[in-house]
Amino acid sequence: DGPRASSSTLPAGTTMEPFTIAAAQSMAATTEPTTTATLPATTTVTATTVLPAVISTRPASAERSMQISAARNALDLKALEFSPVYRCLLEQKFFDHFSTDCTQSCPTNSAVSHGQCVRAETADPRAQVETTWQLGIECGGPCWEDGTMNSTLHGARLSIAGHLDIPFQEVEVTLGLAASTSRRLAATHTAYMTAKVSSNRISEIQSNTLLGSFAQDAASMSSLLGLRVLTVASGTPPAQPSSPVNMGQGSDPYVPAYADVERTAGPRGRATPVTSPVGFLPTEAIIGIAVGVVVLAAVVGVLIWRRQRQRRAAAGAQQPKAVAGKTAGADTTPPAEKEDV
C-alpha cells in the first residue's frame, strides 16, 4: 500500500468520495470565494494540501473589444461629418478656402495642398505666429474631458485655417484653464485658447492682422468651442495652465481619415480610383496580364469562328435532304376518288 497523506476519524455510517487536486481546481473555478465550514468535534486533520491558486482572467478578445470601444468613444466622428474639407474630399473634389465650397479645380494663383485650394507657397521662410484669446467661460465641475475635446479642437483648426486661407494642417490649437486660487468651486472660469500658425504662404504681418480680425465675440466663440463663453479678450496664457488640451498635425486623430481620401481629390484622383488593384502591381506584371488577355481573346475568337463554321456546314447538309423529302411526298399523293353519277 502507498503512503497516506492524512487520517481522520469520521462518525459511524459516513462515507467519503475520492478527492483529487483536479477536482478542487474545478470547484475553485466555478464557485464563490472561500467559505468557512465547521468540522465535527471528532474530526482531526493531520495534513493539509495547499492547492495552487486559480486566477480568472478576461479573454484577450474581450480586452481588445473594450479598447476599440474606448477609442471609438474618444473619437467623435461628428468632426468629420461637419467638416467641409472632408465632405469635398469624399466627393473627389477640392475644398476651395476662398469660396468655402467644393470645386473641380482651384482658382488661378492658388495652390492645392492636402486636397484644399489655398494660398500658394512663397520663397520666404515659414512664419511662426501665435495668438491667444482669454475667455470667461461658465461650466460646472470639469469644463471638458480630454477625449471629448477632439471634435472641438479639430473644428477650431478648420475655422482658423479657413480665415487665413491656408491648409488646416498648418494650424495648431491649444486650450487650457487658469489655475484657480480659491478652494470653492466656482461656476465661472478663465480659459485661454492659443492658435499657432506655421506657414510660408502668408507673412507674419498678414497672419497677425488676420488672426486679430478672427471672430472674437462671445457668441462666435461659444459656437466654435461648444462652451458657454461670457467674455473674450486678448491675453497671455499662463506658464502652467490647468487641464490643457492641444491638437496639431502630429496629434490630430482625424488626420488618417483625411489622408485616406485626399489622394482621390480632383481630376487626377477621379482618374485613379482608390480601390483599383492595378496600381499596386509592378510594370512587368501589368504587361504580362495585358499579353495574357490578348492571347486569350485570340484563342476564344478562333474557337467561336470554328464553331460557327461547323454550324453552317451542318445546316447546308440538311437543306438538300429537306428538298428531296418534299419532292417524294408530292409524287405519292393519292389520286382523287371518282364520284358516282
UniProtKB/TrEMBL annotation:
Main location group: membrane
Topological relation to the membrane, as annotated: Single-pass membrane protein
Keyword entries, A-Z: Membrane, Transmembrane, Transmembrane helix
Gene Ontology CC annotations of this record: cell periphery; membrane
Protein's organism: Alexandrium monilatum
TM annotation in the entry: 285-305
Highest taxon in the source lineage: Eukaryota
Name of the protein: Uncharacterized protein
Subcellular location: Membrane
Region feature Disordered, mapped onto this chain: 314-341
